[in-house]
Design brief:
The chain is built from 13 helices and 17 strands. The radius of gyration is 21 Å and the shape is globular. By secondary structure, it is an alpha/beta fold. The structure holds pyridoxal-5'-phosphate.
């Protein structure tokens, strides 16, 4: 008899977005004329920019002739894209990363999940709380999380590091030694960042403990403040203790097109093994590369026109984030994030739980948000709003909130 991976049976249902959809559908059934504004799910809405589309069209045409046809490409990504990444995302910020430390993929979610292939089941994993659920669930699938405790809403073997207003959204070093540490800056869901000094504490910790930091920089392009690293490799010592995930999804609207990359430095060695060589072995065995057409599109964001065009789209979302932050603050709410992120993390009114506030906004303002509790126990007392929507709808949402009587 085939035996299945029993860890899957331990996973709690993906309750958060199903429950949001369920509550929204029920409300809309009773109020079919309600004009709902979606500020919940973290997906972009603006179209791909012209430079990207043109490059993709040209790449499609390449595929139509035998001279320019592209079959299997390098599993690690085409040199035209890896070199553009090295030059623009790293060298331009004074960070020395080589092209063979860049692994292009179909997105950061797969890489964040697949990276677990390189690690033994016997590692202590630490995550921030609240957290992007992918980090936790993929470790649970691999058997590193222990058992799920329904009452406490956490896994017995995972180290949770609360990030809340009380600690300025910077996790304290864990009491129990952690081997693998996930950090996300700018953070999904809190929209907050780790500045240079805060990140350096973690790099030093990881080097002292021979731990590895898995650094998710999917929202790096939203950083506006100085002194906030765009890459963990801006911090001295990070090359011996960190792997970084990047994505074109939020940067350039690739959530549907699919492209990202992972940086695995050659200096990163544990148990005498090069993590770069291991990831290369893993990718060449299990992955046949991202699509040529999509990689051509991704490379176009590094051209002068492409850079300007994606900046314009990012500015559209940044303006929405400002509208949300200022609108909520004017209505008397305490908010975090937004400045370096498309996410706004809003404190619920005194004494109100995050699902209760979600329901209130749903029914009284017809705005769909995400309850913070869905991202982990320390998310209780907050909701997340996203700046990825339509500008007019975003303004309308803030007017509705201003008129609420709380
Ligand atoms: C959106 C997102 C990603 C990017 O995922 P893709 O698979 O590249 O679309 C990665 N990490 C976080 C935290 C995200 O929110």
């Amino acid at each position: 008899m085939a035996k299945v991976n029993e860890n899957y049976a331990k996973l709690p249902g993906s309750y958060l977005f199903t429950e949001i959809a369920h509550r929204t559908a029920r409300y809309m059934e009773e109020h079919p004329d309600a004009k709902m504004i979606k500020m919940g799910i973290g997906d972009v809405t603006r179209p791909l920019v012209p430079a990207v589309l043109e490059a993709m069209h040209d790449a499609v045409n390449d595929m139509s002739t035998s001279e320019n046809f592209h079959g299997y490409g390098p599993e690690q990504g085409y040199d035209f894209l890896r070199n553009a990444i090295v030059e623009n995302d790293f060298a331009a910020r004074g960070v020395d990363i080589a092209a063979d430390e860049i692994f292009v993929s179909d997105g950061a979610k797969s890489d964040c999940g697949n990276i677990g292939d390189l690690f033994d089941v016997d590692n202590v994993v630490a995550v921030c709380d609240p957290v992007y659920p992918v980090y936790v669930d993929t470790n649970a699938m691999a058997g590193r999380a222990g058992d799920y405790d329904e009452a406490a809403q956490n896994w017995t073997n995972i180290v949770y590091m609360p990030t809340t207003a009380e600690n300025g959204f910077c996790p304290a070093l864990p009491e129990r030694d952690a081997d693998i540490i996930y950090l996300c800056s700018p953070s999904n869901p809190t929209g907050t960042v780790l500045n240079f000094d805060q990140l350096k504490v973690w790099v030093d910790y990881a080097n002292e403990h021979d731990a590895i930091i898995l650094f998710d920089a999917a929202y790096e392009r939203f950083i506006t403040e100085e002194n906030v690293p765009h890459s963990i490799f801006e911090v001295p010592g990070a090359k011996t203790c960190a792997i970084e995930f990047r994505s074109f999804s939020k940067t350039a609207g690739f959530t549907g097109a699919r492209c990202g990359y992972t940086v695995v430095p050659k200096d990163l060695v544990r148990d005498g093994q090069s993590l770069n060589a291991m990831w290369n072995r893993r990718q060449t065995t299990k992955f046949n590369g991202a699509s040529y057409i999509i990689q051509r599109g991704a490379a176009a964001i590094y051209t002068p026109e492409g850079k300007q065009q994606i900046e314009d789209t990012l500015d559209y979302y940044r303006a929405n984030a400002r509208v949300i932050k200022e609108g909520l603050e004017a209505a008397g709410f305490t908010v975090f994030g937004a400045v370096n992120s498309p996410y706004v993390w809003c404190k619920t009114p005194e004494g109100m739980g995050s699902w209760e506030f979600f329901d209130l906004l749903l029914t009284k303002a017809n705005i769909i948000t995400t309850p913070g509790a869905g991202f982990g126990p320390s998310g209780e007392g907050y909701i997340r709003l996203t700046a990825f929507g339509d500008a007019e709808a975003t303004k309308e949402a803030m007017q509705r909130i201003a008129q609420l009587e709380l």
